[in-house]
Amino acid sequence: MKKEHLEWLRTNKACSSSIQWIEEKNIQSLEEAWYTCERGTWLLWMATKLNVDKRKLVLCGALCAHTVIQYMQDPRSRNAVRIAFLWGRRKTTYAQLEKAKTNALAAVIAARVAKIVDTATYSAIWAAVFAATTADAVWAADTAADAAIDKKSNQLRTAEIARKILTEDILKKIKEIK
Predict the structure, then answer these.
(1) What sign has the CA pseudo-torsion 132, 30, 173, 176?
(2) pLDDT per residue as tens digits for the range 14-39
(3) What is the DSSP letter of 12?
(4) What is the chain's alpha carbon radius of gyration, rounded to the nearest angstrom?
(5) pTM of structure
(6) Residue 178: strand, helix, or coil
(7) Burial 7-34 (b: 16+ CB within 10 A, else e)
(8) Could you tell me if 152 and 35 are in contact, meaning their C-beta atoms sit under 8 angstroms apart?
(9) Model confidence over 71-127: pLDDT tens digits?
(10) Which spans in the chain are helix H?
C-alpha cells in the first residue's frame, strides 16, 4: 500500500482486521481498497474519516439501514430510516432528523425494557437510530443480518450501496491525502 495511505489508515485508527485484510489482499492504495472491499461498515468508516458530505453519509446510512427494515417492527424505527433518507435528499429538516432519531432511540429502549425482541430485530432498531449518524447504521444492519443468518450478503449489499452513493466524493478526498 502507498506509504501515505497506510499512514492515513493508522493515524485514523483503522481497525486491525481491516489492516490485516489490506495486507492479505496486497491492496496497494485506498482507491483499490474502496473498490474491492466487501464490507459497507469499513467503507462508511473511510468516508466518515475523509469528511465526506454529511447528507450523503446519512443518505447512505439510511439506505444501508433499509436493508434490514423487515426486522423493524416499531413504526418509530421505520420512520427514522425514512426521515434519514429524506434528510439526505434535502427533503426534510435537521430538527426532523433529530426528532426521528430520538423516537427511534425510544423504540430501542422500549424493546430492551420489554425484552421481547430477538437480536435481528434489536439490531435493526439500532440501525434506524444510527441511520442519522451513518457508519454505525451499517454495523447494526450487518448485525441484524448476522442474526438472521445473512451477514455476508448484507455486507456486500451495504458495500455496493456505499460505492454507488459515495465513490465520486471518496476519490476526490483520497487525492487530497499527502
Answers:
(1) positive
(2) 989 999 999 999 999 999 999 999 98
(3) T
(4) 16
(5) 0.84
(6) coil
(7) ebbeeeebeeebeebbeeeebebbbbbb
(8) no
(9) 777 888 888 889 989 999 999 999 998 898 888 878 777 777 776 555 555 555 556
(10) 3-11, 16-24, 30-36, 40-49, 54-66, 75-88, 94-114, 119-130, 135-147, 151-175
